Amino acid sequence: MTTASAQPVEVASGEPVEVVRNVGLDHIGFVEELDRRFVRPLRDKVKAALTAKGAVRGAGDYFTGLIAGVGKSTGRIDPEKFLRLYEKKKISRAQLVAAIRVGNEAASECLSQAEIDKISDFTPATPRLCVERIKTVELPLVNCVKGLGEIIS
Questions:
Q1: Pairing mode of beta strands 64-66, 57-59
Q2: Is the sign of the CA dihedral 147, 149, 151, 153 positive or negative?
């Protein structure tokens, strides 16, 4: 089995960034790998079995489940139609502006990044930890389970 080493990597800016070894990333990766290999397929099977019985709730010996969002849908307002409501004076300018959200990608088709930055409000992003499997390293399932055993004991 190949093991990974903590080597500097190049990020989007082109600057090399030091990679710090942290076995906690392996623990998170083990859980995500088990989720990908077993939980997701099992979740689909259980959902199909409940649905086939016309149920939205189920129970095992230790856990209960709910199929959320049954009969619900998400919607998006057509911007052209919403603008027409304003033009027909059915909604106020304040209501129109309050409902509009302009994405940077769409704005970048007609404005420069400097122009976008000038009219944008920024809020600090919450840092997310993204864990990715090292593709060149073999990962037998037993290693996932053993790795989880390390954090449980």
A1: antiparallel
A2: negative
CA 82 and chain centroid, separation = 29
One digit per residue, the tens of pLDDT, for the chain of length 153 reads 445 555 656 656 677 888 899 988 988 988 898 888 888 899 899 999 998 999 988 998 888 989 888 778 888 899 899 999 999 999 999 999 999 888 888 999 999 999 999 999 888 888 777 778 888 888 888 887 887 777 776
pTM of the model: 0.54
41 Cβ partners below 8 Å, 6+ apart?
Answer: none
Sketch the domain layout of the chain as residue ranges.
1-59+136-153
Q: Which structure tokens are listed for 102?
A: 């302009």
**47 CB contacts (<8 Å, ≥6 apart)?**
67
Phi and psi based region of residue 117 (left: phi greater than 0; alpha: psi -120 to 50; beta: remaining): alpha
